[in-house]
Amino acid sequence: MTIDALLAISYRDLLKFLRDPMRLVWSFVFPLLLIGVFGGIMQANLGESIGFNYLAFVFTGVFAYTLFMSASEGVISLIDDRESDFSQELLVSPVSRYTIVLGKIVGESLVALPRGLAILLMGSVLGVPTTPLLLLELFLVGTLGTLLGASFGVMLLGNFNNRRTANQVVPFIMFPQLFLAGVMTPIGVLPWYLEILSRISPMRYAVDLARGIYFGPDAQTGVTVLASPASNLIVMAAMFAGFLVVGTILFVRRERRR
To answer: Counting beta carbons within 10 angstroms of the beta carbon of residue 4, is it exposed (0 to 12), middle (13 to 18) or buried (19 or more)?
Structure first.
């Protein structure tokens, strides 16, 4: 019963994504612009002087960023379910609250993964050095990034009353992480106040994990990679568990007050 409910909730989110052509198109166009245009320009002008492949640096950053963001924003769409009373129908069903939230997390992860696959293929076309094994490894760590992003979205969801509030607040939470996580530029050296913000930014660890896998043992610590993959995995696991528990409590409490 629990597995069936989880799969049903997940399938519903995937179906909604496939039926939204504009969302499909934009989800592929934006990463292409970031990697192909920004990464290509910077690699052509600075690639030889900075000592590492900047196109690959942006590629791995945008890959992790896209998956994290897609899953986070997708989970926040539970607000739409709340406004249509669909979430109330779920809560009165004989299904665990954690099953409902996990179903949403899995569903939005499934929505994000095709974007990740497209970015991996896109990187190969644009000339990012890869191998089939490396692409598989990146896809696997990207899956972990989607789970972290989705759990983060659950925690944010519990603090919003409606879509309008979410649309106003979420960009101020998500957009700074583009820089604090080092998606486009190295962040090995930061002012102390930005260092604090960067370390509490969950996206940082998803991005750094992808880069740690890509650049491997030859990574320039503090430049292309900030910490070991093992360290990033531990932090991501702790954050995922914390976001899931806190987010589920906040979500259920808000629904009961309606």
So the answer is: exposed
Inter-residue contact 66 to 119 (CB < 8 Å): yes
For residue 152, the number of C-alpha atoms closer than 13 Å in the C-beta half-sphere is: 29
pLDDT for residue 206: 95
Report yes or no: 151 and 240 within 8 Å, Cβ to Cβ.
yes
Instruction: Calculate the CA 224 to chain-centre distance.
Output: 19
Radius of gyration of the chain (CA): 18
The structure's pTM equals 0.84
Calculate the CA 246 to chain-centre distance: 18
- Tokens 């192909």 belong to 36
Mean pLDDT of 171-198: 90
- Please answer whether residues 198 and 176 qualify as being in contact, where contact means their C-beta atoms are separated by less than 8 angstroms: no
CB 209 within 8 Å of CB 144? yes
Q: At what angle do helices 132-157 and 229-256 cross, to 10 degrees?
A: 30
Q: What is the pLDDT of residues 71-81, one digit of tens each?
A: 887 777 677 66
How many CB atoms lie under 10 A from the CB of residue 239? 18
Q: Tell me the backbone φ, ψ of residue 166, rounded to 5 degrees.
A: -60, -45
Residue 225 bridge partners (DSSP): 221
